[in-house]
Design goal:
Strand content: 5-15%
Structural class: alpha/beta
Bound molecules: NADP nicotinamide-adenine-dinucleotide phosphate
Mean pLDDT: 91
Radius of gyration: 21 Å
Number of strands: 8
Order of helices and strands: EHEHEHEHEHEEHEHHHHH
Distance between the termini: 37 Å
Helix content: 40-55%
Largest sheet: 8 strands, mixed
Number of helices: 11
């Protein structure tokens, strides 16, 4: 069955690799009531078990049955595992199936040249774990050499059900976005961890400290998004004049925190070689 944008609801999906991203996709799809049309595969029994328990989606050890079932195969294995997996997949996959590769660091050219003998269309996309609550940000590479527009629009339709989608013709931008959107959840969690610990240090029960911290971080981001003001102004707008938050923002430690965070990102900058 050739798939088109209006066919997402009838599209059968196969998720290969049920780790962080595969699991997050399963969780998001569960909320779109797409469980019966989705199947997962992972060679790791614990990950399969967790996936089945938390998403209600079937999972298998062998990928062949999953590929046979699916119209669209979502490849969610680690980047070093993608090409060896495609080496096997291209001998099995038929041209009416769509392959979507979610690896952050495998180029569209490598994907296409690997899968080309099968004539199956391939779409490169990068997403993040926030698809688990349908608040993902997915970047999709738009390249007619990899997949026809109707195939790409079906893939866009799928990811729009799981959050926001950005389509780009620039693979360099896709790589840059993947670094930023991949780092963002971890960066926020580091700060959240410190906030929870601070709550416990000032005498709150650790469960309460966690609930308050998580709620406040989530709600602060929502308030900022609705505020329509820039980050710096927002930061100072939450501090009552003369109050403890104003003193906190003015303390030299605030600059030190920022310097430390910048150093952390410098560490990442030195280890990536973005496409130009
Ligand atoms: N984590 C993120 O936030 C994030 C963000 C953006 C993009 N991505 C991309 O998403 C991809 C997956 O990342 P991840 O963090 O989800 O990795 P992960 O947690 O390690 O999950 C990958 C899973 O796939 C399994 N697997 C590998 N080859 C397989 C095969 N041939 N058949 C069945 N199962 C197989 C792995 O099993 P083994 O452990 O036994 O190898 C592992 O359980 C990566 O390419 C990454 O670039 C991740």
């Amino acid at each position: 069955m050739a798939i088109g944008s209006s066919q997402f609801r009838r599209m059968r999906l196969g998720i290969i690799g049920l780790g962080n991203i595969g699991w997050a996709l399963g969780r998001g799809l569960q909320q779109t009531s797409h469980q019966a049309q989705t199947m997962g595969c992972d060679r790791n029994a614990e990950k399969r078990e967790r996936f089945v328990q938390t998403t209600g989606i079937q999972a298998h050890e062998d990928w062949k049955g999953v590929v046979e079932f699916a119209d669209c195969v979502l490849v969610c294995v680690r980047h070093g595992q993608v090409l060896p997996f495609l080496d096997q997949l291209r001998n099995t996959v038929t041209p009416e199936k769509t392959i979507v590769c979610l690896a952050a660091a495998v180029s569209g050219t490598d994907l296409r040249s690997n899968i080309a003998p099968s004539r199956a269309p391939v779409v490169r996309a990068v997403t993040n774990v926030n698809v688990a609550c349908r608040s993902g940000l997915t970047m999709i590479l738009s390249d007619p050499q990899f997949a026809a527009p109707e195939v790409r629009s079906a893939v866009i339709d799928l990811f729009e059900a799981l959050g926001d989608v950005i389509v780009t013709e620039s693979e360099a931008d896709l790589d840059r976005w993947s670094v930023l959107s991949g780092c963002a959840p971890a960066a926020v969690m580091i700060f959240l961890e410190a906030l929870c610990q601070f709550g416990a240090q000032i005498g709150l029960d650790s469960t309460v400290a966690r609930e308050v911290s998580v709620q406040c971080v989530g709600a602060s981001l929502k308030t900022f998004l609705h505020s329509n003001i820039d980050l710096k102004t927002f930061k100072y707008s939450v501090a009552a004049p003369g109050g403890i938050v104003e003193k906190l923002l003015a303390a030299p430690e605030s600059d030190q925190i920022r310097t430390t965070v910048d150093q952390w990102f410098d560490y990442i900058l030195q280890r990536i070689a973005p496409r130009t």
